[in-house]
Amino acid sequence: MTQPLFKKVLYIDTETTGLEPGRHGIIQLAALMEYGGDVVDTFNMKFQPHEGAMINLDALKVSGTDPEELKSRTSSSDTFREFMKFLDRHIEKFDKTDKAYPAGYNVGFDLQFLEAWFRHHGSQYGSGSYQNWKKLDPLPILHTMDFQGTIALPDYKLQTVCKAYNIALNAHDALSDIIATRTLLGVLIKR
């Protein structure tokens, strides 16, 4: 595959059963694939955590997930296969020049969970086959702005920041979070 004439960005957000990628699992995964500034595809699935994942009931409350409803969702392995199809439509995993920039709000958290999820489902290369690890994240930009005195918020949770910038958000829904993050990143980059 030849070098793309435009950059690919993979916006990603997860909702999880806790805060530890090695112990907890993903229960919602949303992604936007962007080519040269245009969203060309969307992925959004709510699903069961992988087998053996610990479930923190407080974490379920944050995402508004009913523990009983969680049991009726698609399996983690079926979702993993669908997500691989999504990625394979856009990125040639064996071409070192065809990788996406991973993007999200505090995206390092999501990437740790994504990597653990890939490994859990037997991917020997992990998510590195699809991304370049050059993270695009509004949070460090906001922290720099706070340091410079150009912004001062009580906290830098996505919900607080979106309210300050009048960006619509249904907090702790992965798709809403990632759409708001993409909008926020665009606003911050233009400044």
Q: What general form does the structure show?
A: globular
Can you tell me the CATH class of the largest domain?
Alpha Beta
Our count of domains comes out at 2
CATH architecture of the largest domain: 2-Layer Sandwich
Number of strands: 4
CATH superfamily grouping of the largest domain: Ribonuclease H-like superfamily/Ribonuclease H
Low-pLDDT regions? none
How is this structure best summarized?
This protein is of the alpha+beta class. Helix content is 40%, strand content 16%.
Brief descriptors of the model:
2 domains, 16% strand, 40% helix, 7 helices, 191 residues, 4-stranded mixed beta sheet, alpha+beta, Nucleotidyltransferase, domain 5
How would you describe what is shown here?
It is a single chain. This protein is α+β, with helices and mostly antiparallel strands. It folds into two domains: 8-129, Nucleotidyltransferase, domain 5, CATH 3.30.420.10; 138-190, no CATH class. Helix content is 40%, strand content 16%. It has a four-stranded mixed sheet, with helices on both faces. Strand 2 and strand 3 form a beta hairpin. The longest helix is centred in the last third of the chain and has 17 residues, at 174-190.
Fold topology:
Blueprint: E1 8-16, E2 26-35, E3 38-46, H1 57-63, H2 67-71, H3 76-90, E4 101-103, H4 107-120, H5 138-148, H6 158-164, H7 174-190
Parallel strand pairs: 1-4
Antiparallel strand pairs: 1-2, 2-3
